[in-house]
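Quick question: what would this complex look like in 3D?
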Amino acid sequence: MTVPLAKTGGARVPDAVWRWAIVLLGAILVGVALSTPMVLPVVRLLLGALGLVFAYAGASRLLRARFGPDFDPGVWLAGSWLVLIVLAAATADLLPLPESLDPSKALTEPTYAAPSAAHLLGTDQYGLDVLGQIVYGARVSLVVGLGGVLIGGTIGTLLGLTASYLRGRVDGAVGWGTDVLLSFPPLVLLMALAAVLEPRTRNICLALGILVIPSFVRLSRAAGLKVAGQPFVLMARAMGATRRRILFREILPNILPSVLSYALLVVAILIVAEASLSFLGLSIQRPAPTWGNMIAEAEAEFQTHPFLLAPAVPLFLTVYSINRIGDFLRAGKEGD
Amino acid sequence: MTDDTTDLLVVRGLRTTLRTSRGPVTVVDGADLRVPRGSTVGVVGESGSGKSMFARSLMNLLPADADVTADEITFDGRELDPRRPPHRHFWGTEISMVFQDPMTALNPVRTVGAQICDPLRVHRRMNRRDARARAAELLAHVGIPAPDSRLDQYPHELSGGMRQRAMIAVAIACEPQLLIADEPTTGLDVTVQRQILALLRRLKDEHGMAMVLISHDIALLADEVDEVNVMYAGEVVENTGVAQIRDETVRHRYTAALLRAHPDVDAPARTRLESIPGGPPDPLAMPAGCRFAPRCEHARAVCATETPRPARDPRTGAAYACHFPAESAEELV
Amino acid sequence: MRTKEEPPRDPLLRVDDLVVEYATGNGIVHAVSGATFEVNRGETLGIVGESGSGKSTLLRAMLRLTPHSGGSVRHGDTVLTDLDEKRMRPLRPSLQMIMQDPIASLNPRRRVRDIVAEGLHMWPDRVVTSVEKQVAEGLEAVGMDIGTVGDRRPGSFSGGQCQRIAIARALALRPDVLFCDEPVSALDVSVQARVLNLIQDAKEALGLTVLFVSHDLGVVKSVSDRVMVMYLGRICEIAPVEDIYAAPAHPYTNLLLSSAPGSRRPAVPDLTGETPSPLDPPSGCRFRTRCPLAQDRCADEIPPLRALPGGRGVACHFPLDHETEAGATA
């Protein structure tokens, strides 16, 4: 690790100057990328990205020098992004966004408009604002991601926990159920569900929730078995604790950390899964916006209107941020 | 012929420091050990006393970033650098070691025979067939019945006592001059423990080996060894003959307290044991002065500030480091 | 013939022909085979044996924590073995246990004050003053201050401290019987004495009956009133502590005592030196494969646990003590 060395050598001036120089270089690159419309867009994009990398590298060195080697600016950035996206999704109705939901109210707006002051990310084929749709689409992504995990995680964990402690016939039944569920190809299962369920947010949550039940059952059952064999569980029995008390007071708190860190991972997976379903037309239908169906629609047009692919960016950032924070929490747990 | 008058191993001022996430920890702090030829020397201590680290320091079995220094280590008349062996066959042929848990010290996926052959093939350059024949002899020698068939068994197929015998066979394969046995019977049943100790005693006599026997059980040592080194918090606080342990005329207050706390099988029934208050000190925050002082009922102000200097009992020759040692037997009379 | 004074009998627990067998992939494990004994009110019964003797299984079966295959356990007038779990539960606070691994017997995610209060929350009828007060008193009795330890979690304590917390938790319920399963085996000598003394003090203060399982003969001698020796699932011998240590009647007891570190007894021959597998125990007397006194009869007949004078019992066809000859013919 070079970080402690940089810290011990912190008295030397060149270190700080060097760090600021990297930040400055990044800023200049970003500035060039933004202010040179004559250059090819691809070159501008590359320059901007390179600038951001430099700015990030320099800033993180500065921050580590300031707050110590354990400071992780990536985690802070990821956290900030998630806070921002959650806030935006929650307050979408209050934000001063151009019409993004009802095509009939956007009849006067230009279609396929390029980014401008009125439409920061342009408009789509109905003249609806792309930025506004991204914000509303975040609602679907977040609700489906969290809701699916809430449904699947709760049911799966309870089943796995009960199976691990009661063993015997209950364990057998739960194991059989998860095996059956796992043996369906997920896409076929979802298509079957889509055939009977109306494509509404609630139903998408339900469908994805059912899909992730088996993995939560397996995780919590394995963790539960490990805890159930611990002497303190036997001690609780010897004290006359009821089954419910043992399950929820003794075993559950001990498996919860691993279940939660896994749940975070699944949130990210479900956000992508919902986008994929939307892309396939199995989720919420246009014109109601989701990141997935926006990308699906943009696919046909992106040669001429590349900005329509904009929802891919928040999708990537959100999933990346969730995984980044998950890693951070797991590392912290292991460090105990 | 061995010379009875010289010591096989002399260690003075051994200091071992391990790097941990919480900072460097000195697990052995200035320990001395003297092993006369053909003798059995005991090291007793509780968990965290540094007794196992002491042995591992002598066997070069510490992590690479550990720091071992000593004022003197002499083995068989030669100066010994604890991190650099005099020749590449040193460990295993001149000093070798028996560990507490043969289940983890033996490789679970290799046969017992293969593991006994290892030292023979590496150190003795034996060919496969000779090594196997010798391995069978060794198994018979350590009292394992039907040794030929045992060679092809895996450690988990043997009982705990048999596994420990197999590990002893590995350790003595190259006929070392010194055998270090670190808790060789801990975790075994008492009837099996008795057999293993008898085996070690027999091997020691037959081969003229010297032995360092490390244990947490002072009564066990009193049965087996000639002299006892008592370790506490990384230091050897007392070195005394086994007679003083047996008749409880030890000088250091920790040794005395340990003997009183030990439930003796020959003591009168329903005797209340004397407990030692508190627990061993945190190795990162060792008390100043005598390290046992915070738990010692005889401690006075000086004990908390000054490190006790080593002293020698003129009558028994026992060495101890205690400001207010227990009265020796003659003073009590 | 001299007659020894019979010790007073006041059985609180009566175990009759208790059998614990369970199936594994390799066959049926005969963990406890026909254990019959009594535990008197207010006494400490030490149970000694080596690995595979069934001593811990016996304890758990008595507490109905392990299913039994036959026989009965009585606590006072109640036949514990007849009860289903629902009717067993209300009796559990009276029968408390402490275990070998003190750190693992406490839930790592809970605070010490909640761990000790757990039983009192479950059994409000055991609260005399208030939960908070009784928890504080319980911890004080084991030498701990609730103010300094109450909010910490088990991970920050040593083994000895955890065992004291476990004792405080068990005693908070005011049990009649304390089942101790190797309570000091994981502890250093300097701290084990304190735990043993705490159990002893609690026994005297609360009039507890104690079952104390250990493999350490010295520890058992220091705490027990009577001692029971087990080998491969069977009881070999049961006797007052002084008698059994002074003059063991069963050859296995004799071997065990002579093997203990620090013992001054002469060495006893041990024929095979290996305990047979509990999957396939020897016929007749299970110790016969190692016993220097074994004869043909030992392989054919299971020796019953016979009462001897002085409140002793021994399960051997050829016991060591002379007095037992008389008992055998009587």
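Answer marked as accepted. The two ends of chain B are 44 Å apart (CA to CA).
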